[in-house]
Specification:
This protein is mostly helical. It contains 8 helices and 2 strands. The two termini are 19 Å apart.
Length: 185
């Protein structure tokens, strides 16, 4: 009997992981036109970890990145392929995994209390920004001239801070409401 229950639980886990990987793809395709357009990719990452929890949410982010790496057009602008990841903004996509890992670590250490979830999302965002910005600078300087940190932050981070904080607030609220409908693993 426990073998059947364990098998069913693993099947549900795989289904939820796949659903949230697809949700991240859909979020990446949605572009909000502003002075600097932005997508809902980070919202997808935050909601995956917020609803599924650290382990399944992180695996979902990894599946999303691997789908894109093999060429399935799951990234922004319906793009995919290893070239996207190796380009200047690919570090931000890879940074999603580090964000999810940080959120999982904080969940493991401090539980899933609301304050912990919000702080872990903000920390995850900062980690994504840091990794993505460093990656951007390295790739950009290989193909162009040297560029300063302030310039790259002005291009890649500062315009996105407020939209990303709004996405965190929305992901927190939605995940708190929907978590009760998803069995926690």
């Amino acid at each position: 009997m426990t073998t059947v229950a364990a098998s069913r639980s693993k099947t549900y886990d795989m289904a939820y992981i796949a659903i949230f990987a697809v949700l991240m793809a859909i979020c990446s395709w949605i572009s909000i036109p502003m002075a600097v357009p932005f997508t809902l990719q980070t919202f997808g990452v935050f909601i995956a970890v917020g609803i599924l929890g650290g382990k399944r949410g992180t695996i979902s982010v990894l599946v999303y990145i691997l789908l894109g790496a093999v060429g399935i057009p799951v990234f922004a602008g319906l793009s995919g392929g290893i070239g996207v990841l190796l380009n200047t903004t690919g570090g931000y996509i890879i940074g999603f995994l580090f964000s999810a890992l940080a959120m999982w670590g904080m969940e493991h250490l401090f539980g899933r209390k609301p304050a912990v979830q919000i702080i872990s999302m903000v920390v995850g965002l900062v980690i994504c920004y840091a990794f993505g910005t460093a990656w951007f600078m390295v790739v950009y300087m290989r193909t162009n001239e040297a560029v300063g940190l302030g310039t790259v932050l002005g291009w890649c981070v500062i315009p996105f801070i407020i939209p990303d904080l709004v996405k965190i607030a929305l992901a927190f609220m939605v995940s708190r409401k929907l978590r009760r409908y998803v069995p926690q693993g």
